[in-house]
Records
---
Amino acid sequence: MRSQVFQPMLKDLHENSPEIEASAILTVDGLTVTSLLSPSMDPRRQGTMRAAAMLTMGQQAVCECACGHFEHVVVHGKEGSVLLVSITTDVVMLVLIKTEVSWAAFLQRVEQATQAIRRVI
């Protein structure tokens, strides 16, 4: 996968979603394909390996509870949230979000971005 293909898509998502601190497209084993960080963001905060673990746990929970296909995992913290969205069986998008977010509108914008990425993959 060529990372430069996905950069404009992440940039568009950031421009339309001011609550995003960082986003990345990752393989399910935690390797970063590409990422876009806000200027104040520490690159070490991406936590790609933890994201891969979140994905595995989310997929197992969905499977074990017979909830259908895995779509996304959200982890909320005091300082923000982490959203992990399935793009394909091998690729996910990780989004770090500030504490203030209108979830319905935000998830709709993320879904539009994931659909655009799917068309390219």
Note: The helical segments are 3-16, 48-64, 103-120.
---
Amino acid sequence: MNKFTLTCVLTGISLLTTACSTLDYEPYGYGEGWRRSQVLEIGQTKTMMQRVAKDCRTELRADAPYARYAVASYSYGGSPNLRAKRVVAVPNAMNLNVGDWVYINITDCQQPLKRVDQRKMLD
């Protein structure tokens, strides 16, 4: 294979790799613990909620500035069929409904959930 052909092949592979890696819109870092999830339930600070893998209310101070919490379900292990649930804080000013897509941080309970931009979400 000559040098020109090799350069063309490597350039083509590079372009394809870059194009494929930019298809998913993820505004928050996966490496920093952010996961796209779906809201299953919304409740108050003392509300009994369905069974979850982690309840962030236990890690927040009693005077935390959040009045509402949500149970959010996210996939893990690289499979959409493996799901975990977590209770996370909801910002007080956020209008949130069951079924909404949000981002949660699975490594830092101090982070409240963040809304997913529905216009850029790919399913």
Note: The chain has a mean pLDDT of 83.
---
Amino acid sequence: MSLSDLIYRPFETLIRPLDIPYTPLPSRGPFALLVHFASKFRGVLAAVAVLMIAIEGINLATIWGISFVVDGTTAKGAAAFLEEDWPTRCRTFPSVRVRLLAHAASSLAP
């Protein structure tokens, strides 16, 4: 078994390229060719698109949460930030509580 077999076998078992019935390739241009191949894997492409959108939303929320902590500790100081804004933020966004707490703890370390 070669290295390429190890790399591509999971994709070949998922898509099964040899089980796809033959259809002639369109000759109307590159966009028609792209649509021709994409139409065979609509479900997979839709799942990838949804997952990419969800991951980017999580990334944006993480960046926003970290910037909130950095701005709060820079403007007010760590003690005032934890006393005034921290409880409200943790009740409002419980999903980012652990990340904000870890970042705030590292800000307090000497």
Note: The mean pLDDT is 78.
---
Amino acid sequence: MCGIKSHYYLTFLTVDLEGRLDMRELKYGMFFVLLILSLSFKAYSEPSRGWVDDVEVHRLVIVVTGGVNVRVKPELQGCTSQSGYGQMYASILPEQPGLDKMYSGLLAAKMSGKRVSLWLADDKCTIR
């Protein structure tokens, strides 16, 4: 082939014109794919008590009881929301002190695109 090395790049693989694979790039590609998969599983894991850091407020719903349901990205799973909104919504209960301040802060974060941290008080995803 006149000493010219031409390559076709396919995502993580390099194939030369003779059809040989560059195994080093295959190893790095496989590592990258496994890393992305492990991080995506963490994003959809079951919630527990404690801080949920660096989330984007996706949707706020005021329910008839006076509480607020909050949906964030990356999404939560396994929550027990108020008024049957589903397992992806955390809740601020109507008897929560400072509910109006919490709601206004979440609304400001949603409108400005800022990320927030939430404290989940229990396995039902009650925000405190």
Note: The chain is about 25% helix and 30% strand.
